[in-house]
Amino acid sequence: MRVRLEYGRTGLEVELPAERVVRTLSYKDATPLADPEAALRAVLAQPNGTPPLAELARGRRDACIVISDITRPVPNRLLLGPVLETLEAAGIPRERILILVATGLHRPNEGDELVEMVGQDIVDRYRIENHHGPVLAEHTNLGDSPRGVPIWIDSRYVEADLKITTGLIEPHLMAGYSGGRKLICPGLAALETVKVWHGPAFLEHPNADCGILDGNPCHEENTWIGRHTGCDFIVNVVIDTQRRPLKWVAGDMEAAFLEGVDFVRQVVRDTVAEPVDVVVTSCAGYPLDTTFYQAVKGLTGALPIVKQGGTIIMAASLSEGIGSPEFQTLFQDNPSLDVFIERILGKDYFVMDQWQLEELAKVRRKARVKLVSDGLPRETIDGLFVESAASVEEAVAASLAEYGPAATMAVIPKGPYVLAQVG
Hints:
This protein is α/β, with parallel strands linked by helices. The protein has helices at residues 36-45, 53-57, 76-89, 112-118, 120-125, 155-158, 191-197, 200-203, 217-229, 255-268, 292-302, 325-333, 337-344, 354-366, 378-381, 392-403, and strands at 2-5, 12-15, 21-24, 63-68, 97-102, 127-130, 139-144, 150-154, 162-168, 171-172, 176-177, 233-239, 245-251, 269-272, 276-282, 306-315, 367-372, 387-388, 409-412, 419-422. It is globular, with a radius of gyration of 21 Å.
């Protein structure tokens, strides 16, 4: 059987033995919005849990609109137009509107990337700035959260008279789902905040996982931080496999977000009857699979359906390499994942981005990993606590030979955008 995996900007066609594939997991059929702009304007006028955006904006001296960085395929051009128009019509001058990119601890987005994200017209007409998580001086301290997370949030957002966040609701490997509160923490948080919120005390909790909100300490804590910081209005979107809007939600940070989660759960969840020996997956293609740091999400997304001792085979473009310099040093400084985990569970070891290696360690406790990529040399991939493979077909053949004639396999062409479960 021929399957197209999401890979870079082009996709990757692979040939798999149909008799071994028990299921190809995918989005459920959902009809994209016939007129997405009209649907967006409707939720801005009749939001969930707040007055209309136009009413909220009236009399405000300025506004900060927070958008996701380039690692999230949010249809920002479509989203921002009606929002910006509403703010200006309500009396907020264009020069007092800031579009702030919630980079978290990712690199800034500038130049052609900004044009790709929001369109040339918005780049030319509005002030767009990046959040800089490592620069503590650009943040305001707002005390501590209930679980002791020090709250440092971008001062430009904290000081804005009207606070608006936007984003995409999708499964997330730590916080359950992206969107809503996540644009504030970690999106606008300083390193001092993120290193605690992304620390082992949170991430080793069994409920800090994809698709889980109830009892998830990551979700509970950043929801509290978002409320404490303040958020007047959110606009979030759910997209289909072709990245077309399926649903807009807007209004209260929690109520609108949960409305979106209820919808997205029905669309993205797919199941296998029982765990399989081999999972073939992706990291959802561009922009999510540009680094190994991001590609770990594709591995964690497959974790629920692979057998203990099974194998996950992932194709990811890795067009920008491994990730941040700090993330790269983790592979150089730790001879094994066991050593790394022992270090982070102590009190004296911390390296920015260590949380993603912690997630990889969760994967490797359960399964082998074979990685197919044309973005890094094989010897580099072999140094990332995974195994390189020349092709998906080669990796599949070797794995099926290892597990024998009764081996089973599942495929997740769109990787972590699908909530894969047993059931």
